[in-house]
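User: Structure tokens for this complex, please. No commentary.
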Amino acid sequence: MRAPNPRTALDRTTWTLTWRLTRAGGRTGLLATSLSVAAAAISTALLLLCVAVNLGFQQRADRIDWRTPVKSAAPVAVEAVGTTFSGGTPVTVVDVAQLPGRKAPAPPGMPRFPEQGEVWVSPALADLFHRLPADRQPVPGTVAGTLGRAAVAHPGELVAVVGHRPTAAAVTTPREADPRRPGDIVTPTRVADFTGQRSTDGIGDGYVALAKIATILVVVPLLVLGASSARLSVSRRDQRLAALRLIGATPGRIAGMTAAEAALTGAAGALLGTLGYGLLLPATVQVSVAGGSWYAADLWVGLPVLLAVLAGVVAMVVVSALVGLRQVVVGPLGVARRSKPPRMSFLRALAFVAVIVGYSLFTQEHKSDVNGPLVFFALVFLALSVIGPWVVGVLGRIICALAQKPAALLAGRRLLDDPKSGWRTVSGLTLAGFVAGFFALFGISGASPWGHPDTLAVAVPKARVAVVQQDARHRLEHAGITAVVGTSTDWVAAGGEGTVQVVATVPGGTEKLDRARTALTSLVAGQYPITGTDINWSGRLFSDDFSNATRLVLGITFVTAIASAGITAAASVLDRRRTYGLLRLAGTPLRTLDAARRKETLLPVAVLAGGAALTGIFAAAPLTLGEGSSIETGGLVLLALCFGVGVAGLLAAGALSRPLLRSVTEQSGPRPE
Amino acid sequence: MNSHRTTTASAVLVGAGLMKSYGLTRALAGVDVSVSAGESLAIMGPSGSGKSTLLHCLAGIEGPDAGQVLLGGERVDQLGEPHRSELRRTRFGFVFQSGQLLPELPADENVALPLMLGGISRRQAVQKAREWFPPLGLAGMEERRPGQLSGGQAQRVAIARALVGSPQVIFADEPTGALDQITGMEVIDLLVTTTRRQGTALVVVTHDEDVARWCDRTVRVRDGRLSEEARTPDGAAGTNAVAHAARGTAGRPTGHDTDARYDR
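Assistant:
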């Protein structure tokens, strides 16, 4: 095939012809076009949401940089960070003081530097102050103002900024950082401004990685969906395109027409998808991730990104259509004659094994690196696509050898004849199986191994233990709370060497605990009393978000996979409508054709998706079986559920194309149209 | 109509008073036609004359609006689609213009498929299918796939598939339509002689006079009616299958100039 001449490929005639063919496509044509548009729309909407969440996490992280102060040689202020809790939710308290004789800039989200004794709170914390009685206020002092959005990660975040004298204990007493609570505690730091820096050890990284993984897992099945719908359009029109070729249209013209139609449907779908993204945005904004819902602005991707995604979707649709077209352009008689079934090289299997071995070697060496495994993880995904057709071919050979019934023989021959097309039908579910396997045993434990949920602790230097205990008893008694005060050897509050845990056990629920917490706040300068459960709040949150994300991603991948399987099933019926029609005329029962169609998808799915699930478990193992995670039996249930849903969905998708099979076989006359 | 009644007596397939309309278009307006065992009947007519509709009604692909179709004396026009489907599979054979072979199946399995659908084991079906290859000039082609066969070879495989279940009637709809003249004549020759030898009735729909000349009888459809029932042009004993067969492959009826080119 000569390279298409770009001038004839996309000139006015091409567009006119394309438009006429698209409009004159009849009901089947309309169906195929609608499916293409729908696939592009769904891909666009989901892609935009994926990008939005990735960018959203970025924006959230940007706005909390100022809480990770950078020590300066020419300081103007002191900044310290502590974290207390209200009803189990963390409250970030930033203590600031202006150094004598210096002019400190206003912290983010504030019009001016806070005066001594002023408390500025985030809108959500302001609500809490209104709702809670004085004896449960998480932060002492009176509210002077509300923090603007620039200081807050998300609308629900509880943040307080407290102004102090430069000599106050809150901004002079060193604070012991706790490795289990990254970002929760920052010792008083002399700063020149409130720019801060990206926290390197915070939980934000975990979310960014989660968003990346989720995006890959969602995007690849979407690519499959886009490709299958584009192929459907081509198989619908190949006869007419072949006819045009026969009357002398150049390959360039045909390619141009295909590209033009794909671009039209792709663009229509992308615009619809953008609309869908816009409509889904208000709902998505309400979804609580990483501790709260979103600012709508954070999930708006911005015009440049939007245009890039739209262009990407259109390009993807066009490329898929052109790839599907190759057959037609080959010759005027349309479908190229296949003389021999292509043998799938054994090299495919070797490549797969190489990637798997490489992956396991790599992850053994770089256990804690998240990005390295991510790359390999994408490679494994790719490796599945490489080995898929080979497995389908081998499977076809086995089925052929064993077949006794016509349906099995037809299915086996079909798989053996065109393993790649067999693979296309099941690829989505195979990749979904991989995702399911990847997440199934990927449980992050949310349980805290430290202390007790009803025991508040502070770390106190040995010499002061008696005094602090006395003070604590006095404060609790004054607040009317019955509690047992003592010391403990559990590691709850961080205090460094030579400190002892002074603890107060407060049975009776969260409300009582919070009252005790308020009473004991400022018992020790720079420390908020915490329980063992408090330590683990971010891990717990991440664990919850992780399982939600898992379910969401699995849902999306399975729905996408089943949709592509259905579309591919329809395309393959259209591709073979003439043969099917003639077989029916010759008395072949539709039942047999249907049974063959079922077999040629279900058998590969059972083998491939099963294998892919195992591969997924294997790929996830190095990422999950580290510290702080455990194998969950719930994961196995999830996996089984996914399989049930996948197979049922596939059967339903096949059943949905049965009316199409019936109608094309009945429409088809004995002679080509 | 007298001659018609006499043929009806020995006929294996009879269509009587067949009517069929599509909306306002009348495709068949009362057609009587019959074909006997071992006899070949050509149905001719211009495009849109109703000849395909006639074939569809006779073959149980469509039901007529009025009239009867009798196969071996039994009415088959009122059967439901599942039964008609079974009828087509077990008692009829079909040869279409092209595209009827499954591209991914080797030739022998394509031929064996109707037998397997009938419940015969794969091994037996393939064995029986392969027996048809040498007489149809297809020896050695058993394991080739349709894409590896020439157009004529593919049509002969299709003939084998139509014949393998020992049907009573074979319907051929433009069986040579996708072939060049020489190959087309080879294929129709093979089709007519083989069905005659098997004692199978053959109904050929064609617009090609050369093809029709190979058949024992020709009927012409025009505007939904049989406008003429002609003996084959040179045919003294057109309906007499045995006499016709006796002439064998030596003296072909007409189309002599093509004979010269293809006769071996």
